Amino acid sequence: MFLQILLGVVGLAVGAELIVRSAVNLSNIYKISGYFIGFTLVALGTSLPEFAATLQALLGQANSVGIALGNIIGSNIANILLILGVVAWIYPIVFPDMKKQNKQAQIVVGITIGIVFFFLVLVRFKIPNIVIATSGALLISVVLLFLFIQFTEERKHSSYKENDQETFSQFKSYVLLIIGLVLLIYGSRSFIIGAKLASIEFGIAESIIGLTLVSFGTSLPELATGIVSAIKRQTGIAVGTILGSNIYNILGVFGVILIVRPGEFPIQEEVSIFSNPLVISIFIMAFVTILFYWKIRFGINLKFIKFKANQLGKNSGKVFIAFYIIYTLVNYFYLN
């Protein structure tokens, strides 16, 4: 049990180190920003655990669309509140190229709000399976189109800045990236198994384990990558990874759910936001995404404290982490 947790932590730490090192090197080779590398290659790689956990929930012994949906919703919440909070606490995140990053943050907000409305339509109305599956395929197509547009714009208007680290070969970069992703995936899996055994050992209910541990566990690669990025003062990679991962989760992984199990989506004629955990969580996901965008775009000015725009500092990080802890506790007491 504890050995699996230890191996998981080691795998996450080493994998994150390799990923960040290769990502910084690739940004030097291609003359593109570390933010873009994080938004594409690293984010796609660190989203693999969410994808794998979703398929396991849909096709494995769990056989649960609810777990799959809770995984991607909870992961997106953890990405913004917990991971960006931890990164900002370690090393303040500054957004120097706000014109481009503001546009991408707006896209994330718009996509999130759109998915919220689409989700509510799905849980309120009986929609033909073919329409649901086609919608899933369309969401995946949007991800591919979005990646193509982002790459085209990055090549035209790159915010690339040379890093101090020595550049090594492109082949070595991709080898290190792949090894790092494998270590992240298996490290997070080992950590989840060990933590689950520990939770059972200490008598924590399985429902609590499923809702909190699955989404947290599949976010561990982003957390490990974010911590290493913050330590190396490459926070652009961390932010790009989080925003990219959230887009891939709510478009790509959600699209897979709609394609694989269109006929078993949780349909309800009437949904109360006070009684349905998934509905509550998806509204919270939208709220924290808007909160993040508002903070970096306009700042937050309260009577007792001020949060500056264009950055996430240590105080913002602490507040984000506190919100995540509150969210977890609310889930715990709500379920019990």
Question: Can you describe this structure?
Answer:
The protein has a single domain (2-335), classed as A middle domain of Talin 1, CATH 1.20.1420. Helix content is 78%, strand content 2%. The protein contains 12 helices and 4 strands; from the N terminus they run H-H-H-H-E-H-H-H-H-H-H-H-E-E-E-H. It has helices spanning 2-30, 34-46, 48-59, 65-90, 98-124, 129-156, 170-201, 206-218, 220-231, 235-260, 277-298, 314-335, and strands spanning 93-94, 300-301, 306-307, 311-312. The strands form 2 sheets. A two-stranded antiparallel ribbon has the order 1-4. The protein has a two-stranded antiparallel sheet with strand order 2-3. Helix 1 crosses helix 9 and helix 9 packs antiparallel against helix 10.
List the helices and strands and how they pair.
Layout: H1 2-30, H2 34-46, H3 48-59, H4 65-90, E1 93-94, H5 98-124, H6 129-156, H7 170-201, H8 206-218, H9 220-231, H10 235-260, H11 277-298, E2 300-301, E3 306-307, E4 311-312, H12 314-335
Antiparallel strand pairs: 1-4, 2-3
Helix pairs in contact: 1-2, 1-7, 1-9, 2-10, 3-4, 3-8, 3-10, 4-8, 4-9, 4-10, 4-11, 4-12, 5-10, 5-11, 6-10, 7-8, 8-12, 9-10
